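WP5 quarterly update. Target: tRNA-2-methylthio-N(6)-dimethylallyladenosine synthase. Source organism: Pelagibacterium lentulum. Length: 463 aa.
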Amino acid sequence: MGAMSDASKTTNAKKVFIKTYGCQMNVYDSDRMTDALADHGFSPTQDMGEADLVLLNTCHIREKAAEKVYSELGRIRDFRNEREPGAKKMLIGVAGCVAQAEGEEIMARAPAVDLVFGPQSYHRLPELVARADRERVIDTDFPEEDKFAHLPAPKKEVTISRGLTAFLTVQEGCDKFCSFCVVPYTRGAEVSRPVAQVIAEARALADAGVREITLLGQNVNAYHGVDDKGRQIGLGELCYLLAEIEGLARIRYTTSHPRDMDDALIAAHRDLDKLMPYLHLPVQSGSDTILKAMNRRHTAAQYLEIIDRIKQARPDMALSGDFIVGFPGETDRDFADTLDMVKKVGYASAFSFKYSTRPGTPGAEMDNQVPEAVKAERLEALQAEITAHQTAFNAGCVGLTLPVLLEKKGRNPGQIAGRSPYLQPVHIEADESLIGQILPVEIVDRAKNSLVGTIVTSKVQAV
Ligand code: SAH
Ligand code: SF4
Ligand code: F3S
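Structure tokens (predicted):
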């Protein structure tokens, strides 16, 4: 792996162990932290025992996610204390959204922690680690400078070692302030990266053999990056530019807000074969009363109308979503509207969560909090409905021939694993020399969450 080659180039190679929680943006950020530290003599390790620096990249979205951090910190502290006498020094750092939201509390509750820093400080990481060697450090400011302009790009061999698909953050933060959500507080106001920066990063990825990129943002379709002429361009226009990059075969983006699905983005879905026909468009609830209380600023009917327009542009579009059950004030009737929404849209997949009260958000102050038992009941019913649709969607793929990006070796020898345009994992009996290609695959069977296929021809498809 890239880790070995990096380590061999430095004289006093140190090791960093990063554990990542939460969303795809944290996955992307963890790689960028690895890249930032690589220039300062740190190579990544999967083995905490040999780490000089242990970082937790944390998520604050629900209470459980945040609490997990403290229990994990306890385990790491014990691990550090129980090592042999004379073991090398090991610093413990906390990054991500819990660090941003409750940095001071971490410092107080977890004295073993040497370093706490928020998502806007990642470009300062080497300097923060050097300081943490001498004193406890906390950095949760929102600095003026452009973090992304200061984060070093990975070496080509490192990108190659990370595989054929890659994340690319184009937008960070959120100005929507849904009344249940911590993201506007943990990630700050919406910021879009300049167009040239995004294109350069996408080119470097393609140059290292990456075939599929997923553009990331907490509100990715609110993207409004500035181009070289000083014009602001939206996500739709950005997709046209990215589609011109040679070698790059597939473009995806996540997560979108229904209000930002503008005509240009819908037109991009009509025009660009490289833009995959799979859209994660969370709605959270099917009830207008609850949508209003959530401050989503659209109705159920408006959401369905947006989906209609998208399907007119791209009839084979598959949809995915997020739902919250048990938001304050949610009645049986409201919940029935949510089930109805799932039936109407027929999601290819969807995530659903019990409402979790987050301190500092308006939802936490609302009356009519729903009892846990009711939330659990509703979650079960919703998940059954979602699973039924997901199963039907997968079943509908059997017999079709789909272009599949052959990504990696499969679980068993002689097997390779890929992804359909609709993000379904596809298992294929085929030679691993085909990895990296996009080939037509006839879907012959399905398992619970994946498909089974056979390659129709070994010719590379023109995408
Ligand atoms: N930016 C995205 C979602 C970010 S959080 C969007 O606008 O949709 C990912 C998902 O977590 C949300 O879509 C929501 O379904 C869920 N979520 C966020 N806050 C939550 C809370 N307080 N309790 C339960 N689920 C929550
Ligand atoms: Fe949270 Fe709403 Fe922003 Fe999504 S749009 S990140 S749910 S505040
Ligand atoms: Fe969690 Fe922060 Fe992502 S709260 S979902 S890691 S933006």
